[in-house]
Design a protein that fits this description.
heterodimer; A: mainly alpha; Histone, subunit A; 2 strands; about 75% helix; B: mainly alpha; about 55% helix; about 5% strand; elongated; Histone-fold (chain A)
């Protein structure tokens, strides 16, 4: 799939918001400065990815994982990011756990309902969707195990 | 230090990540040797990028001359890239700018120096 130039850029609105929230109130940001920061952010992603990938390769893994990214930050001399990133990771994991439990509960409830309902056709379609979702989650779990 | 959450969503809840993961993923995948990316790595990279944007903006502003004018300008960023080891990797994409007239002047001076060198060589050869 060919990438158009815009695809490697990050959305202006979000970048602008992040900058505004970081700077003191009332500070003006020139359009040029905004665009420069956006480009810098894309370059940062590439640099971080390449660096993280080195760590993955060192560990003989083909999939980049969370610890690779954290190691990359240290390597790039952005140690100041490590603590907030670890906190974000914890929060994300808690969120995922909550979501998974909620969807498992939903499936249980749904199964109870469809048993007492009509067509086999409907049931088959529903099950396909659930299986796809479960597969995705299982895939994520497998990747985590690589840690 | 910036909070873990950046921005708020529709319900006013602090959002964990503002940057779109799909876009971050596209950029990461464009890196040649990368085969696959675990979801957590994607989330952390997005978060790190947000922290980076904050850091670049505040650092450039604090060290920049725009502070008196309460503005962040391109040259503040270019100066940060040139002056700080941490932001060195940005030096190529954030070059310092000079006036076109200055650049033309530099070119002229270089040309004149080259011509002088040629002339010197000439003289030595003759004597």
């Amino acid at each position: 799939m060919a990438e158009r130039p815009e695809d490697l850029n990050l959305p202006n609105a979000v970048i602008t918001r992040i900058i505004k929230e970081a700077l003191p109130e009332g500070v003006n940001i020139s359009k040029e400065a905004r665009s420069a920061i956006s480009r810098a952010a894309s370059v940062f992603v590439l640099y971080a990815t390449s660096c993280a990938n080195n760590f993955a390769m060192k560990g003989k893994r083909k999939t980049l994982n969370a610890s690779d990214v954290l190691s990359a930050m240290e390597e790039m001399e952005f140690q100041r990011f490590v603590t907030p990133l670890k906190e974000a990771l914890e929060a994300y994991r808690r969120e995922q756990k909550g979501k998974k439990e909620a969807s498992e509960q939903k499936k249980k409830d749904k199964d109870k309902k469809t048993d007492s309902e009509e067509q086999d056709k409907n049931r088959d379609e529903d099950n396909e969707e659930d299986e796809e979702r479960l597969e995705e989650e299982e895939q994520n779990e497998e990747e985590e195990v690589d840690n | 230090m910036a909070d873990v959450a950046v921005g708020r969503d529709k319900c006013g809840e602090p959002r964990l990540i503002s940057l779109p993961l799909s876009r971050i993923r596209v950029i990461m995948k464009s890196s040649p040797e990368v085969s696959s990316i675990n979801q957590e790595a994607l989330v952390l990279t997005a978060k790190a990028t947000e922290l980076f944007v904050q850091y670049l903006a505040t650092h450039s502003y604090r060290h920049g001359s725009g502070k008196e004018r309460k503005a962040l300008t391109y040259s503040d960023l270019a100066n940060a890239a040139a002056g700080s080891e941490t932001f060195q990797f940005l030096a190529d994409i954030l070059p310092k700018k000079i006036l076109a007239s200055k650049y033309l002047k530099m070119l002229k001076e270089e040309k004149r120096e080259d011509e002088d060198d040629d002339n010197d060589g000439h003289d030595e050869a003759e004597s």
